[in-house]
Design a protein that fits this description.
The protein is mostly beta strands. It is built from no helices and 27 strands. A five-stranded mixed β-sheet has the order 9-8-7-6-27, with no helix packed on it.
């Protein structure tokens, strides 16, 4: 496997996140949350543009309309072109919905995790399921710091990173309803490594996890064992996705903004480069196309 790492964009993203490959357009989207910018990159022309501006986007999913499902700290929305926004949900049972990562499943439903982490945790988050019939339900609770989501090849296991717990959780999925059960710990990341952040699942069923504070991407086999580590020149790796014409390009977002945290591993080098660029790693292992959401406001 080649581990050549290319810098694709170096905009000093304060909190680069939510990379998403759109096979219909052959373009990559990702967001810089703290700068309120969402970017679009075309590898065929090397052209990069600001795609959405003045909105702090935290999560993205493809939508059947050709637009995007967009998450942020105030709710979930359908973006259907410049200036065309529709609200999917901003609250549920009296609780304001502050979303982080989201994931569309093969049935067109959307999983979305809430995060209430500001100057330390204010309250635990939940994982919500948005169904295509418009219903919303809580499918997991007591999440410290909701992050990456991914599905196994057969769609029967949902992976969900709880960064503050240093865990990637796994749930059994009822494919007919999307409901979750049988929560277990898929990976417990050691204290001397970074925090599990964004993740994706490749075409062999292995999980790729970006490590915040860890300066690496870790590939886990379906049993949760480390298969390989790919170091990157940025301590705060935030998320990963596969893209390119054959889905063999692994795109990695990073974050330049740094704040001391009790979650740092022992001996963490605070003088190292934290991040900011968008990286691409050429692999001989393909990913899978992202599912398309079919929920509507």
């Amino acid at each position: 496997m080649s581990t050549t790492i290319d810098v694709i964009a170096d905009d000093n993203n304060l909190c680069g996140e939510a990379p998403l490959w759109n096979p219909a357009t052959g373009k990559l989207h990702w967001t810089d949350i703290l700068s309120s910018k969402t970017f679009q990159y075309d590898p065929a022309t090397n052209d990069k543009q600001i795609f959405i501006e003045d909105r702090r986007v935290t999560g993205l999913a493809l939508h059947e309309s050709g637009g995007l499902i967009v998450a942020n700290r105030s709710g979930l929305y359908l973006w259907d072109g410049p200036g065309r926004w529709q609200t999917v949900a901003t609250e549920h049972e009296g609780e304001s919905l502050a979303f982080n990562d989201i994931l569309a499943d093969p049935a067109g439903r959307v999983y979305a995790g809430t995060l209430y982490w500001q100057d330390g945790m204010r309250k635990t988050g939940k994982l919500y399921l948005f169904d295509t019939d418009g219903s919303i339900q809580v499918v997991a609770e007591n999440i410290l710091l909701a992050n990456g989501l991914g599905l196994s090849l057969d769609g029967r296991t949902l992976y969900f990173a709880d960064s503050a717990a240093r865990k990637i959780l796994a749930f059994y999925v009822d494919r007919a309803t999307g409901r979750l059960s049988s929560q277990r710990t898929f990976v417990q990341v050691p204290e001397d490594e970074g925090l599990p952040d964004g993740l994706t699942v490749d075409a062999e069923g292995f999980v790729w996890s970006a490590q915040w504070f860890g300066g690496q991407i870790v590939r886990y086999d379906p049993e949760g064992q480390v298969e390989r580590r790919v170091p990157i020149p940025a301590k705060q790796a935030s998320s990963v996705t596969f893209g390119g014409p054959h889905l063999t390009d692994l795109y990695v977002t990073t974050a330049a903004d740094y704040a001391p945290s009790p979650l740092e591993p022992p001996g963490f080098d605070r003088t190292a480069r934290m991040g900011g660029p968008l990286y691409r790693i050429r692999l001989d292992i393909p990913g899978r196309p992202e599912s398309v959401a079919r929920i509507h406001p």
